[in-house]
């Protein structure tokens, strides 16, 4: 790409917004030219707005820290300054739907980390390695919105980013049932141990909304394009439990699976090791090589050791073995604020650029 696209980050002061800012610092295709947040932060420099709560290990990028924060609701002032936006606002669901549609109607493509529009029938919820074809519904959505350029695309919930990629290459064997328990890091709640000391030496067996998302969102990802909507798949049946655990970053999943046509261990490992998804074929800037990494060691993957695999964009898998109730069980891991949030959205935007949906205005 000869000239970088102008990017805005809406909700730039929160945990995921900060991760967007950090990951985009040296991006070869995208340049952050605008940051927006609540009216409380508007008018301040970005550095002032996040003072005392910058949660990234790297410092605030020099090109961003002196940007003046816009009010996220001042869409007319923002729309002409950017080619597209990433959205990671902390607002009620109904307000997010209104806000994201307002940006799209003002001809600003929105790549969203929020959950509000994930089940909107004509909004594609894309995991780039799995269902890139769902972007084909964007013209239908544009017709509904009355736009030429503007549209909304969302990424899936962080809780399913680890295990759905490991399941996808096995779908040809008739994957019928999935039982999964996720062990989710505190950054998924926008917290650190400093801001949430109650989580030190603790596990909380409830995360609001996570189990429903873990059971329903994969079916939309595996669904198909109907005339004016994405029709969710009927299988596999998924039963999920989601626990908050005392880890800073990294969501782990313990998965048990049953098939209609049971493959061998060797066949499963072969699928995992030889699968080269489309983002990897295209060599997109954020696409990890390889996407899935299988560990032979009995005690891997581990959150602390393996969450940054593929610069935080890869999926770590291990402990594949027979299950006495189901067919097989295994463990997998992803970085929740990189692959599961900002990084996944960035890779989605790269794919949309490669396929001609996002471009210079």
From TrEMBL:
Keywords: NADP, Oxidoreductase. Residues 6-138 form the Semialdehyde dehydrogenase NAD-binding domain. SMART domains: Semialdhyde_dh. The active site is at 158 (acyl-thioester intermediate), 251 (proton acceptor). It holds the Pfam family Semialdhyde_dhC. Its EC number is 1.2.1.11. It is an enzyme of class 1 (oxidoreductase). GO terms for molecular function: aspartate-semialdehyde dehydrogenase activity; NAD binding; NADP binding; protein dimerization activity. Belongs to the aspartate-semialdehyde dehydrogenase family. GO terms for biological process: methionine biosynthetic process; threonine biosynthetic process. This is Aspartate-semialdehyde dehydrogenase.
